[in-house]
Amino acid sequence: MPSELADGSRMPPRPSVLLIGDRQHRDFADAILWLQQHCRLQTAADPDAANQVLDQTGLPQVVLFVQSRPGQFAQADIETIHARSPLSRLVVLLGSWCEGEMRTGKPWSGVVRIYWHQWAARIIPELMSASAGGGGVWRLPRTASGTEQFAQATEGPWPSGRGLVVIHTRLFCDYQALSDACQAGGYSSTWDRPDHSSFADGATCVLCTLIGGDPRETAVVTRLANRHAPAPVIVLLDFLRCDDRRRMLEAGAAATLAKPLLVGDLLWHIHQQCLGSGTAAVVPSSDR
């Protein structure tokens, strides 16, 4: 990896991450692949192995627990690692079997909690910002409550762009909510009703709301991807599962998100996908 950018400035060092847990579980495959490519990543199967890694490699910037099911780790495990590496940011990436713990369990304290389908918008910006000396939610003190973390996550700043976002959804209230989110990022929008579909030329991005779990919905994604190419199609599902995500990507979706979601997460994905597809028109910093 080169140490300097094209303008002669030095690139920030890659952030150091210690991952603890089942790195083979499919819920975390994409996240771990990205971490391997962009971070100095060390892995450990459990807290005992993590202590050995800490003895050998020193203290990381981030300790990332990956939990595929409830009960794999205890609060005592979190506190043990914190005592060994008190300056590391403690983050938990939770698999699909953990999504009910806010109602039926006792979530750990002193950590940032992220679900498997949120990883890209919640982990990538934080790690890239941390490596450059900045940071968002992860820069809050460990004692910050979930409410304080949420407030920090919702205050921005958010990625900005220009262009038309086609919103394919059945309900007008869903269109209004997504349109308001797009407007906050500088985008205009148009409503594409399933029962009265109309063609919008020059789309920058397409948002499509679906229920999930019905394989027949993939035909909708394929039709939208073909109609609006090269604009990326981002699918929002009521209850996202790995199989739903795989089907949507195979059908032509560029990304899948779970509802509900934060405005900042949605705008981050729109920004990233439009940059990748070449449809982005990024707003200069002087215009923000």
Protein topology:
Blueprint: E1 16-21, H1 29-38, E2 40-44, H2 47-57, E3 62-67, H3 75-84, E4 89-94, H4 101-104, E5 112-115, H5 119-131, H6 146-154, E6 161-162, E7 164-168, H7 172-184, E8 188-192, E9 203-210, H8 218-228, E10 233-237, H9 242-251, E11 255-258, H10 263-277, E12 281-282
Parallel strand pairs: 1-2, 1-3, 3-4, 4-5, 7-8, 7-9, 9-10, 10-11
Antiparallel strand pairs: 6-12
Summarize the model shown.
The protein has 288 residues and is an alpha/beta fold.
| Count of helical regions | 10
Overall 3D shape: elongated
The major beta sheet can be summarized as:
5 strands, parallel
CATH class of the largest domain, please? Alpha Beta
Instruction: State the total count of DSSP E strands.
Output: 12
Structure class: alpha/beta
Beta-strand residue fraction: 15-25%
CATH topology descriptor of the largest domain: Rossmann fold
Order of strands, main sheet, comes to 2-1-3-4-5
Helix content: 25-40%
Fill in the keyword field for this structure.
288 residues, alpha/beta, Rossmann fold, five-stranded parallel β-sheet, 10 helices, elongated, disordered N terminus
Task: Give an account of the 3D structure.
- By secondary structure, the protein is α/β, with parallel strands linked by helices.
- It has two domains: 138 residues, Rossmann fold (3-Layer(aba) Sandwich), CATH 3.40.50.2300; 127 residues, 3-Layer(aba) Sandwich (Rossmann fold), CATH 3.40.50.
- It is built from ten helices and twelve strands.
- It has a five-stranded parallel sheet with strand order 2-1-3-4-5, with helices on both faces. A five-stranded parallel sheet has the order 8-7-9-10-11, sandwiched between helices. It has a two-stranded antiparallel sheet with strand order 6-12.
- Helix 2 runs parallel beside helix 3 and helix 8 packs parallel to helix 9.
- It is elongated, with a radius of gyration of 20 Å.
- The N terminus and C terminus are likely disordered.
